[in-house]
Amino acid sequence: MHPCRVLFICTGNSARSILSEATLNRLGKGRFEAFSAGSQPTGKVNPYAIQQLTAAGIPIDNLASKSWDRFVGDDAPPLDIVITVCDSAAREPCPVLFGYFVRSHWGLPDPAGVQGDPATIAAAFEHAHALITVRLMALLDLPVETLSRNELKQALDHIGTITDAEEEHV
């Protein structure tokens, strides 16, 4: 399993899943290859997500809001892990994704739904990204190459319960 291919799914694929994809691609340094998609993509990446990634020094090249349809069919990349990052996506019927992958849910508050002045919205994106980063660091600490599917599923589900960006790595 090298690189470990992870798909982050959300409804709009404009914020949480994009933050997760870009951050894992940066932190995973070739050990992981991350993608993101949405069940109802907005068609554009939220500008606050771009702002947050840029502030964190994470490349934003090639980020786009796209449909999960891209990950079904013969041309789809093989996936090892599929993670839903919003409650809406977890309750929606998923597409038929062929392959031998582990599925988990990492619910995250939606920073794109925050109302207020630009500083308040930016703070919501910063908080969401901090939580995503803590969870991804916990993922990076896992020996994904040697875990059984059941062990990986249990570990991923546990990571999804981390709710504090200050929490220690799992």
Automatic annotation (TrEMBL):
InterPro entries linked to this entry: Ptyr_pPase, Ptyr_pPase_sf
Coiled coil: none
A Pfam cross-reference name: LMWPc
Keyword Transmembrane in annotation: no
Positions of the Phosphotyrosine protein phosphatase I domain: 4-142
The keyword NAD is assigned to this record: no
SUPFAM superfamilies (UniProt xref): Phosphotyrosine protein phosphatases I
SMART domains: LMWPc (SM00226)
Record keywords: Arsenical resistance
Taxonomy, superkingdom: Bacteria
Gene3D superfamilies listed in its UniProt record: 3.40.50.2300
PANTHER family xref list: ARSENATE REDUCTASE (PTHR43428:SF1)
Name recorded for this polypeptide: Arsenate reductase ArsC
